[in-house]
Amino acid sequence: MFTRTRSRTAPAEIGWALMPTAASLIWDAPSAFDRKVAKPQSAKSVQLCPAAIDFDARNIVVSCPVDLHLRFDFDPKGQPHLVNIDGPQSTVRSKALNQMLTVVARNEWRHPDRPIIQIVTPYVFLSDTPAWLNQFPPFLDYGSLAMPGLMIGGRFPVHIWPRQLMWAFEWHDVTQPLKLRRGQPWFYLRFDTPDPDRIPRLVEAVLVPDVKAYINSLSGVANYVNRTFALFSRAQHRRPKRMLVKA
Question: Are 121 and 187 in contact (CB under 8 A)?
Fold first, then answer.
């Protein structure tokens, strides 16, 4: 639960769960953003600003599951590839790293000199009331933005499209390494509902068989069609009547 401010309406419940995956224990539960600040010395302190409090309270933090120290390189034929700088000292074995992380095909980059890498996470978020997930870089945590590129954000409706979340990174300066640390803020989530006064409340969910099958039906559709948002209407009709089953 991450409600911290009063709302005139009941919270909108958003479920979170992990799709079955190997080593699932490395993935932490999403948590409410917590700004650790000193006790306010003034009644006008920023800590007591209702606008700032409401803004912070709506952010969910997903932490990084692994330690990574990577360099981007090109082979003699100009093919892009990643180098694990820590080599045998890395906490992640090469085989596991290759299963977790992929380099997007070069013709799909947004810029010819800015590689894109992706990590598919097991996180899924779902709701039985209209709610849109927004994914952001961790801009509220000082020090988390010292990276050689930009995280690619996204937005989609979790009440009809509860797909697995992906972390995508556009590498702007390939001369600089990318360093991720386990436990550090990796990205933020915010949830929009039709009623802006209705603050979302995060609850752990159980993926019952029909919900799991529905999520699997959404997996990989981008490999077959463009503009996947055009499938929302069909997904609306095929979604299980109830998706959010609390743990």
Answer: no
Q: What is the pTM of this model?
A: 0.89
The model's pLDDT over 181-209, given as tens digits with 9 standing for 90+, comes to 999 999 999 999 998 888 888 999 999 99
Domain map (residue ranges) of the chain: 12-238
**Do 124 and 17 touch, CB atoms closer than 8 A?**
yes
pLDDT for 175 equals 93
b/e sequence 158-177, b meaning 16+ C-beta within 10 Å: bbbbbbbbebbbbbeebeee
- Cα–Cα distance, 133 to 219 (Å, whole number): 17
With residue 68 as reference, give the H or E element that holds it.
strand 68-74
Rounded CA gap, 116 and 31, in Å?
Answer: 27
**Contact by Cβ (8 Å): 60, 2:** yes
Task: Report how far residue 183's alpha carbon sits from residue 138's, in angstroms, rounded to the nearest whole number.
Answer: 13
* Spatial separation of the C-alpha atoms in residues 202 and 172, rounded to whole Å: 34
